[in-house]
Amino acid sequence: MAEQGEVKTRRHFTNPNEIAEVGEKIYEAKYQADYEESRLGQFVVIDVRTEKSYVAPQPEEALEKAKSDSSDGLFHLIRIGATGAFRVSYSSSENDSWLY
Amino acid sequence: MIRGSIKEGSPSVSIKIGGVFSDQPQEFEAIVDTGFTGFVSMPFIKAFPLGLPLYGSTSVVLADGKSQARLIAEAQVVVGSDSQIGLVILEPSSNEILVGMDFLRHFKLALILASYGLALIQESEFDKIVAEP
């Protein structure tokens, strides 16, 4: 019997929107309330297959923790308490769906 | 000190990008974008030949406040004689490489910018410049 939290989802993702959507849902359901209270501004990586989280002050550190625990994981990176992990200085009105 | 230039009105610096274990990173011109909080942003079409390992996704907040998902990869970036490994955001429809505030943090560099050129100096030098007399 699989350990709690060790269940691996082998869903196939075809574009980053899908990975992000699942990652955000896992984060909201399992970690958001706690992390926004205690770790605001830090970065969390969600393994969308195991639903585990890895937190660190910098994004590369969070990713290294995740990779060390799950070398074949698929990850979504979030900045705790922010809309996005990074800000960019451009707007995009293009439809990028052609790529995916 | 690393000197850059102003190209088409934007501050630009020469960097090399490669896979994490690459011994032959490729040279590119990157725009220094202080409005970008990440390390490197790179078009898909330029990243593919480098074979960067993909790790998943993240969300970026655009200038208009909208949020969009992006793929993330890891790369080795070389500036001058220093090399750092960091996260690269892959852009589906851009043709420019951007380096942002995390780039300065990784390399411990400060940006000095004029309308006709730029320089990247060590943070320790910047501290001396801005220190109270």
Describe the structure in your own words.
The complex is a heterodimer of chains A (100) and B (133). Chain A is of the alpha+beta class and 100 residues long. Chain A has a domain at 16-83. Chain A is 33% helix and 16% strand. Chain A has three helices and four strands. Chain A has a three-stranded antiparallel sheet, sandwiched between helices. The longest helix of chain A is centred in the first third of the chain and has 15 residues, at 16-30. Chain B is mainly beta and 133 residues long. Chain B has a single domain, classed as Cathepsin D, subunit A, domain 1 (Beta Barrel), CATH 2.40.70. Chain B has helices spanning 44-47, 101-107, 123-130, and strands at 2-3, 5-7, 10-18, 26-32, 40-43, 54-61, 67-79, 82-91, 97-99, 109-114, 117-122. Chain B has a six-stranded mixed β-barrel. A three-stranded antiparallel sheet of chain B has the order 1-11-10. Chain B is globular. The two termini of chain B are 23 Å apart. The model of chain B has no long low-confidence stretch (mean pLDDT 93). At the A-B interface, helix 1, helix 3, strand 3 and strand 4 of A face strand 6, strand 7 and strand 8 of B. Strand 3 of chain A pairs parallel with strand 6 of chain B.
Distinct helical segment count of chain B:
3
Low-pLDDT stretches of chain A are 1-5
CATH class of chain B: Mainly Beta
The arrangement of helices and strands of chain A along the chain is: HHEEHEE
Mean pLDDT of chain B: 93
> What is the first-to-last residue Cα distance of chain B?
23 Å
Order of strands in the sheet with most strands of chain B: 3-4-9-5-8-7
